[in-house]
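User: Before I run my own analysis I want an independent prediction to cross-check against. Here's the chain; please return only the structure tokens and, at the end, one sentence I can use as a sanity check.
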Amino acid sequence: MDGTSSQQLKLNVNSALQHTINQNRTSRNQSCRNNCMIDQLPDDILIAILSRMGVEEAVRTSVLSSRWRYLWKHTAIYNSEKLEFDDMDTGTGTKMNEMKFKDLVNHVLKSHQGPLVESLIIRYDNVRDRSIDIDKWIYFAMKKEVESFELNLSSCDVWFHCGYKFPEFLLSHSSCSTPSFKFLRSLVLVYVDIEDEVVRYFLDSCYHIEEFCIIGSNATKNVEVVGRSPFLRVLEISECWNMQSIKISAKYIFYLTYQGSEISLQIERTPMFFELALGGEFCESFIYEPNKHSSYSFQLKNLALILQAEFPFGRERTIAPADLPRLHALEQLELNIESQVGRSLLFFTSLIKASPRLREFRIQIDYIVTAPGYTDSEIRIMMPFPEVSSVESNGFDHKNLKVVTMAGYCGCASEEEFLVQLSKMAGQSLEKIVIDTNCDYYLNTDWVMYRVPKEEEWEKPIENNKQKNTTMTRFHAKMHAEKLASSIASKIKIFIT
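Assistant: Structure tokens:
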């Protein structure tokens, strides 16, 4: 069967399957076997179809009729080398019941007949207490010698942490003859508390590990990658608020992500270390205290910085730092910033100035419009960067910058000023400017700001704000961008989306 015929059959079968489900909802006692074409297909075709479904969707078909009850158990799921579970119910778009989800995962893992599993992903945000079931899932990953394992226990409630602790006792009994993670290549733990000793276990015992990601662990404090894991390439540690230090001395590591508070970061003897992503207080340290980071900043080729407003207590930035980071090898720079509409963006030209080899620059702007409980001046203090004048940002030519992208463009004067300044300072090399007008500024949310309304106005729609142009929409932002394009040198191509 060719690809087109196969695709058409799949579409017809999916349509028929939905028809069957609908008829069963209408009348469970009425048989649709004679009326529904999918029931006319032989078992081997039905099993092949189910094998292409997700685990949850395949299991759900067991309620269609007695014929379907056990068909899914003959699918490739039971021998699959890649298993993925998510407690989002794809049928309803809501989270699955806690017990229903755990029963589903437990049943599939217990019944799995394949000798190995290449990849296991479990995303589960309904954890409310210590769960033996999660211990079992980790043990399954060890027993099946997974190469890629993701355990994501993050919650929709950003203030909630389930407190699940990675079970050290499972690792302490592993040996050559017992299950272990010896073939692990990628490990992602999200909102799983993992002690420093367990981190050391993975770095010492998982010889082949290439990617190690820890997000939201309250137990991780000091991480050392020194002479361990010769194949480790990527390390991420984010939102681990009790972190104190990271020490890296690894020959092949090339990418580090760290988002969090200020820590001691020591990077040495890392000839392949070219990419860095920073957020939180440590990101500000990188910008405002460049001498602390000079031992590794000079070799970076790709850099991403996330600068967010410092709620609830800000540190006012009114003066640009005298020194700049040493970014002599940098080729790509990406900024994700929070700002107020109209606040000057010219400070960031200093980072471009500090990067003489820069070829691509991207800035994503998220505007804070209102923050109930805070005055306009209080929000201004929370902004993570100072305002500088056009005079302060003048005085240099960039000879290598070719592409500039601005995302979150709403059409205000500070955006125009920034893009015009870049077009002038890189006039000899700049080839393209991309302006993306997809911006939350036009949504009725609590976080898009021309001014902070009075307390009695908090519940009113944004368009009631008289200081904001009530006709302003994304369409008008595109019009502003088109007008801006006419003021920039014609040799520079402008793309507006």
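Sanity check: Residues 369 and 449 are 2 Å apart (CA to CA).
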